[in-house]
Amino acid sequence: MAVPITEAYTLGFIGAGKMAEAIARGVDKSGILPASRMRTAHRTLARRQAFSSFGVHVYESNIKVVEESEVIILSVKPQVVKEVLSELKPFLSKEKLLVSIAAGIRLNDLQEWTGHGRLIRVMTNTPSLVGMAASVICLGELATTEDEKFVSNLFGAVGKAWTAKEKLLDAVTGLSGSGPAYVYLAIEAMADGGVAAGLPRDLALCLASQTVLGAAAMTIESGKHPGQLKDEVTSPAGTTIAGIHVLEKNGFRGTIMGAVMAASKRSEELSKHVS
Q1: Mean pLDDT for the stretch of residues 121-126
Q2: Residue 117 annotated as binding?
Q3: Residue 122 and residue 117: Cα distance in Å, rounded?
Q4: CATH number at residue 238
Q5: Which domain holds residue 51?
Q6: 14: annotated binding-site residue?
Q7: pLDDT in tens, 42-61
């Protein structure tokens, strides 16, 4: 039976990259858990200093991190997950919760490589670096409702989190995992359009970025369908409908849909390859 997570738990990071740092900083800032109760290990001085600078204990080995942590976040690159877990397997007792954010590594693979069932898999994205991540959680067979609540709170510290079945994670990857890149392209294109229309580059980029941010906030906070919000800003024979006409003529919506579907398919292919 899984041991409940207490307020005095310790959190370890296997892999001390930018995503792990963003999560650690977000959790510390939120007050959910102080950095003094977090652990990691890394060979590179710069990464060690990045974590130690805000109070995380930095050890010499991943084994030490696992030994000293009740909850372990696996945040290494997918291609080395099997090798890393093979080394850590003897130290992953049943009382420990293993949370993987390694893209494309399925729960069955994690369980096979560790002999461990108390697992949770999370697909998050890079806006965690600014506390605006979209994360989706799926539970391993021995993960408890309390484990789910704990991990939801953890990733809620760097954005918003939802729970879904693992079969949906490839689609999640195609939408929110890869999605920031689509939005960056849109922001860049909008800014370029502003420059073409005569705006200074810095002003165009600021306006494009803030416009995307504001539109996203309107969609979330108003609860209205984006189509309704679009209609509300589109006046008869006005400027907006002229722009939308060009987007529709060039297949804007179909192109975005195709990008999400292509990324989802690629995620599925990569998952099978890793397995």
Answers
A1: 93
A2: no
A3: 15
A4: 1.10.3730.10
A5: 11-172
A6: yes
A7: 989 999 999 999 999 999 99
Annotated ligand binding at 187? The verdict is no
CB 263 within 8 A of CB 174: yes
Q: Note the helical H segments in the chain.
A: 18-30, 45-52, 62-67, 81-88, 107-114, 145-156, 169-172, 179-196, 201-222, 226-232, 239-249, 252-274
pLDDT at 1 over 50: no
Give the CA distances from residue 127 to residues 18, 91, 143, in Å, rounded to whole numbers and listed in that order: 11, 32, 26
Number of domains in the chain: 2
The half-sphere exposure of 110 on its side-chain side, counting CA atoms within 13 A, is 31
pLDDT at 4 over 70: no
Task: Out of 145, 172, 199, pick the residue that ends a domain.
Answer: 172
Q: Is 15 labelled as part of a ligand binding site?
A: yes
CA 8 from centre of chain: 25
Question: Does residue 1 form part of some domain?
Answer: no
Count other Cβ atoms within 10 Å, centred on residue 35: 19
Residues 192 and 163 in one domain: no
The number of residues making up the chain comes to: 275
